From TrEMBL:
One of its GO terms (cellular component) is plasma membrane. The keyword Lipid biosynthesis does not apply. Belongs to the DsbB family. BdbC subfamily. Its main location: membrane. It is found in: Cell membrane; Membrane. The chain crosses the membrane at residues 33-52, 59-78, 105-129. The gene is bdbC. Pfam families: DsbB. This is Probable disulfide formation protein. Required for disulfide bond formation in some proteins. GO terms for molecular function: protein-disulfide reductase activity.
Length: 136
């Protein structure tokens, strides 16, 4: 069993469960950008889980586009929250504002920041997996 693959799956699983905890247990209403991040993360938990079960080391080809786009989207979302000048470019038009912060741990850890870290870890694990697979 490949450690990079397992670590990527565990990261996606924790991110998905954390997201569901924020919305279903703590009753935080996701903004529009949060929904897009969920659309990118939730399938990764399933696809990477199946890949771990089958030891499919070529899954990186399908995971990398999702994780890289997720990194970009969550990075943009985090910047909307932390850079006041960017609020003029906010895309959320109804409901919860994308610049809102349900959590702000240590002054910089917000939900989009957590998503960015998860997408980054998954991306790194898939790049490592790709390198390992090409050597084999």
């Amino acid at each position: 069993m490949n450690k990079s693959l397992v670590f990527g799956w565990i990261t996606a699983l924790i991110a998905m469960l954390g997201s569901l905890t924020f919305s279903e247990v703590l009753h935080f209403i996701p903004c529009e950008l949060c929904w897009y991040q969920r659309i990118l993360m939730y399938p990764l938990a399933i696809v990477l889980g199946i890949a771990v079960y089958r030891n499919d080391t070529f899954i990186y080809k399908y995971v990398l586009p999702f994780s890289v786009i997720g990194m970009a989207l969550s990075g943009y979302h985090y910047c909307l929250q932390k850079i006041p000048a960017l609020k003029a470019f906010e895309t959320c038009t109804s409901g919860v504002p994308c610049s809102g912060q349900y959590i702000n741990w240590l002054g910089f850890i917000t939900i989009p920041f957590l998503a960015f870290i998860a997408f980054t870890i998954i991306t790194i694990m898939m790049l490592v997996l790709r390198k390992q697979t090409k050597k084999a």
